[in-house]
Every structure is written in C-alpha cells, then in structure tokens.
Amino acid sequence: MEIKFERFHLQSDLLSPLQGFEPVSVPTEVRIDPLTRRRSRIITWGLPIGDKLDLTKMAEESEGCIFCPGNIFLKTPRFPKEIIPEERIRIGKAVGFPNLNPVGTYGIVVVLCQEHFVPLHQCTPEHYVEGLSVSLEIIRRVMAFDPDARYWQISQNYLLPGGSTILHPHLQLIGDPIPTNEMEYLLNGSVSYHQRNKTLYWNDLIEIEKGIEIRYITRIGKVHWFVSYAPIGFNEVCATVEGHGSFTTLGKEERLALATGIVSTLKYYDKKNLNSFNFSIYSISGEASYQLLIRIISRTPIQSYYLNDWTSFEALHSELTSNIAPEELCHEIRPFFP
C-alpha cells in the first residue's frame, strides 16, 4: 500500500493592527493529493459569510421558467427517436431531455422536481433518487447508441455562484469519447497506482481513512463518504462507490446511498449559512483500476454584497484553497449523516 499524506507548513509573520501591532503568525498548510499530486492550500481565515439571504423575491421573479410544469414539455428539446424513442425520459417528477446549449457530444438536462425553487434544507433524497435514475436511464440509452461515449459527468450547479443560470433545480450530464482534465488526472493516477501496487487505490484509501478516522464520515451500503485530504474546493465532501467505476452499473441501493449523502451534505451547508454549491460524479466505463467518485463543494453564498471564491490562485495558478481543515469539516459534518 503506497499512499502518502504529504504537507508543508508555511508561516507569515507580521505586526497586526488587530492586535495592537503586536507580532502575529498566520499559518498556511499546503497539502499534496496522494493520487493526483495536485497541491491544495488550507487557509486559517475564511471568507466572510453573513446571515441567510431571503431568496423569495428571486424565486418569485423567475417563476414560470422553461423547467416549470406548464412549460417543460413545450419549450425544452427532445431526443432523436433513434436514441430515445419516447424523446424524453420521466421517472417520478424528474424529467430528462437534451441541453439546448451543450458543451460536449451529449449534453443533457435532468429537472429534479416541479417546484421552481427548493432551499437546501428542503431537498430530499427522493429528489436525487429520481434525478439520478433518469440520468442512469439516459446514459444507458446513449451508450447503447454510441459506445464511444464512455466518459460522463453528472453535475449540479446550484444558484448563481455555482454557475447556474436557471433557479429551478436540475442536473447537467455531459457524455464524451474523451475525458475532462479532472477525469484524466483521476484515471491516470488510478492506473499508475494499480500498476505499482496491484491493488485499487480507492479501496486502499478507504481502508486507511477508516483506520485513521479523522476524515472518514460513514458508509452507506457500498458508498463510502469522506472528506478529501487535499480538497479542491470549500467544504469538500467526497464519496466513492465500492465495486463500480461507471455510473451505468449502479443499482437502486447505490443511487439511494448517493442521494442520502448529497442531501446530508446540503443540510450541513444550510446550517453553515451556505446556499450555493456544485457537485460532480465522475463516471468512466471500461477502466478496471478506476472507481466512481463524487465531489461536493460549497460556493460563496448569495449575499447582500458580491464576493467570489475564485482568485488568481485558483484561476491562474491551478492551486486550490480550502477555508477549513478537512479533519475539522469531518468532525462537524458527521452528525448530519445517517
């Protein structure tokens, strides 16, 4: 087993006006991801977060969007019949159809519910079970039509800071014959680790994290929830699905376990006055050394003044920051999981 948790401790000394110009030391920790070797900076000061902003007016002003019940079957695209004969997929209240503005070979939208706006504390596992089930059915149908589309991302952008242009809760699916940068980092690291150790990185990581305990949250069926040693976003929560590399092989129990963990994380975010987030499921078919991964990160919340959580560090140096130590995050979020 060859997993190393490397870190560097940095320290900045100054005379602080907040302490009567007495000497103050401000620590920063640089961590290196054991798989991708990417650096992440753990900062000890956080972005200011105000009280929860009432989003009622925003919801009311955008009510009646193309994803709402009166419009969804009239104003959204339909699949070609050779791919999906019924042209859209519906399971429960979730509806899936092509994205009008795709950024890949197969761009798909899955609307999660009929409600135009759902605050984080009102999100339910049912919302995500139905949405993930629609996603699964569409991906299976598309791959039956085009087996080369084996790299899939199942993502959610929630509210404007998360990149969403429509308030109505929805997922975005993108399927391609080539991986995204992040998929390639994960896949290359997984393949290299397997070649060196003859074991699966993700299983070894979970075994270590369970033993250490400080970053392992819980297990729900075959889904292991944990926080990343070197996070790539704020309040990052991860899960890997034991025995599955592709989203297409997940059963009902695995989809429910993912939905339960997503909602548990969102309830924690809500408790912390966070209201915007992203998540992505990285699905790769036909790679025995890879295991399915989901990442959830919070974004700067909508508040009375604008504040972005991406700076030149993230955008131009590809060095990501986190405003909470992963071990502290794990301790705080565990009570929100079953």
Features:
8 helices, four-stranded mixed beta sheet, 338 residues, globular, 14 strands, ten-stranded antiparallel beta sheet, alpha+beta, HIT family, subunit A
Question: Can you walk me through this structure?
Answer:
The protein has 8 helices and 14 strands. Helix 3 crosses helix 6. 39% of the residues are buried. The strands form 2 sheets. Strands 4-5-6-8-7-12-13-11-10-9 form a 10-stranded antiparallel beta sheet, sandwiched between helices. The chain folds into 2 domains: 38 residues, no CATH class; 281 residues, HIT family, subunit A (2-Layer Sandwich). The protein is of the alpha+beta class and 338 residues long. A hairpin with a 5-residue loop joins strand 1 and strand 2. Helix content is 28%, strand content 27%.
Outline: globular
> Biggest sheet, strands in spatial order?
4-5-6-8-7-12-13-11-10-9
For the record, the CATH class of the largest domain is: Alpha Beta
Q: Which sheet architecture does the biggest sheet show?
A: 10 strands, antiparallel
Helix content: 25-40%
Mean pLDDT figure:
95
Structure summary, number of beta strands: 14
Order of SSEs, N→C? EEEHHEEEHEEHHEEEHEEHEH
- Counting DSSP H or I runs of 4 or more residues, the number of helices is 8
Q: How much is the radius of gyration in Å?
A: 21 Å
Which secondary structure elements does this structure contain, and how are they paired or packed?
Elements: E1 6-16, E2 22-32, E3 39-43, H1 56-61, H2 72-75, E4 89-91, E5 94-98, E6 106-111, H3 125-145, E7 151-158, E8 170-176, H4 181-197, H5 201-212, E9 216-220, E10 223-226, E11 234-241, H6 252-271, E12 276-284, E13 293-299, H7 312-317, E14 320-322, H8 326-333
Parallel strand pairs: 3-14
Antiparallel strand pairs: 1-2, 2-3, 4-5, 5-6, 6-8, 7-8, 7-12, 9-10, 10-11, 11-13, 12-13
Helix pairs in contact: 3-6
